[in-house]
């Protein structure tokens, strides 16, 4: 079905969802829902994304609203819980909730790279929860540095943090060249995230040359089919992750994970627990450590409440972002 910019703007519904805790500099997650004949798509590129990067996100939203997703090969997907860069006591509380109440057996901990002692206390607390509740060697612990470290800082930090039996470290340094050097100096497996999704052509990134695992985020990659194409070409195991989506947007990542032929790791899709409100009556929060695969429809009352939180200036901002993203991707509406 042909898609037009005017049609997208007519059907665009901006939303704002408060977070339970500050996460990566945000207190509120904003975006736009786009309504189409096959459902709803979520357009929510972060403010610092370029028009070209936002264009891939718009492609994902159009695919969700106007297109079809590949058939799923599984009904549910195992997911990890995520712990923000909070104090150690808060990290322990959040980890216990994730493991005991939501059944998660894998936890990802954010490390910010500015205070190794604080990072280590957070990681140690979560490891203790996993070992105490699930038993030693059962729960899996991964960390995400969001490219915060230099090679030397990463090597020094990981020599200490590796003692907590890390499944992998996600994007410890910014560039592939740095990851190559770091890989020679540590034994912890490296997962690449930004190195893939910020590339001009994510499917062409030679991930196996600098990382052991690929983090594939469908919305920033251009949608479910684009994500699957990247996963087929990277040559390493894949972890499907979200982008702090609403439950409507999270369905895109779940569709990609559900269609993956191989899914050896828990996926990074437990971020619904970070939202203080959502666009649905029953948010996509892990239950038994898994989430179901399938489309999610917004609840009208919750969507309208979320729309009322968006200022007039931000409504204009999001409409302008849709337009710039549209023009950044030739043939987007074809």
Provide a descriptive summary of the structure in words.
This protein is an alpha/beta fold. The chain has two domains: 5-70 and 299-328, Enolase-like, N-terminal domain (Enolase-like, domain 1); 76-292, Enolase-like C-terminal domain (TIM Barrel, Alpha-Beta Barrel). The chain is built from twelve helices and twelve strands. The chain has a seven-stranded parallel beta sheet with strand order 5-6-7-8-9-10-11. Strands 1-2-3 form a three-stranded antiparallel beta sheet, with helices on both faces. It has a two-stranded antiparallel ribbon with strand order 4-12. A hairpin with a 2-residue loop joins strand 2 (26-36) and strand 3 (39-43). The radius of gyration is 19 Å and the shape is globular. The termini are close together.
Summarize the SSE layout with pairings.
Layout: H1 5-11, E1 12-23, E2 26-36, E3 39-43, H2 51-66, E4 76-78, E5 81-83, H3 88-101, E6 106-110, H4 116-134, E7 140-144, H5 151-161, E8 166-170, H6 176-185, E9 190-192, H7 194-197, E10 213-216, H8 218-221, H9 224-233, E11 238-240, H10 247-259, E12 290-292, H11 300-308, H12 312-328
Parallel strand pairs: 5-6, 6-7, 7-8, 8-9, 9-10, 10-11
Antiparallel strand pairs: 1-2, 2-3, 4-12
Helix pairs in contact: 2-12, 3-4, 5-6, 9-10
């Amino acid at each position: 079905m042909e898609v037009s910019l005017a049609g997208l703007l007519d059907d665009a519904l901006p939303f704002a969802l408060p977070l339970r805790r500050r996460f990566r500099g945000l207190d509120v997650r904003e975006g736009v829902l786009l309504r189409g004949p096959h459902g709803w798509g979520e357009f929510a590129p972060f403010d610092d994304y370029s028009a070209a990067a936002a264009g891939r996100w718009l492609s994902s939203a159009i695919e969700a609203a106007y297109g079809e997703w590949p058939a799923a090969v599984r009904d549910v997907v195992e997911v990890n819980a995520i712990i923000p860069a909070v104090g150690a006591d808060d990290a322990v509380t959040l980890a216990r909730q994730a493991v005991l109440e939501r059944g998660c057996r894998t936890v990802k901990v954010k490390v910010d790279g500015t205070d190794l002692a604080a990072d280590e206390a957070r990681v140690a607390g979560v490891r203790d929860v996993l070992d105490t509740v699930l038993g030693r060697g059962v729960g899996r612990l991964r960390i995400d540095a969001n490219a915060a470290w230099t090679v030397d800082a990463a090597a020094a930090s990981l020599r200490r943090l590796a003692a907590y039996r890390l499944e992998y470290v996600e994007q410890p340094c910014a560039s592939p060249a740095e990851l190559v050097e770091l890989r020679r100096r540590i034994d912890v497996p490296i997962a690449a995230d930004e190195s893939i999704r910020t590339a001009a052509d994510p499917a062409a990134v030679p991930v196996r040359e600098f990382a052991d695992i690929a983090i594939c985020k469908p919305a920033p990659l251009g949608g479910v089919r684009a994500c699957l194409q990247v996963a087929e070409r990277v040559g390493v195991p894949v972890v499907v992750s979200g982008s702090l989506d609403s439950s409507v947007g999270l369905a895109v990542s779940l569709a990609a994970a559900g269609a993956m032929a191989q899914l050896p790791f828990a996926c990074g899709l437990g971020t619904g627990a970070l939202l203080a409100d959502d666009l649905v009556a029953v948010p996509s929060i892990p239950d038994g450590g898994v989430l179901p695969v399938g489309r999610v429809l917004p609840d009208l009352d919750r969507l309208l409440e979320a729309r009322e939180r968006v200022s007039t200036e931000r409504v204009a901002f999001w409409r302008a972002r849709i337009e710039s993203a549209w023009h950044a991707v030739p043939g987007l509406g074809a």
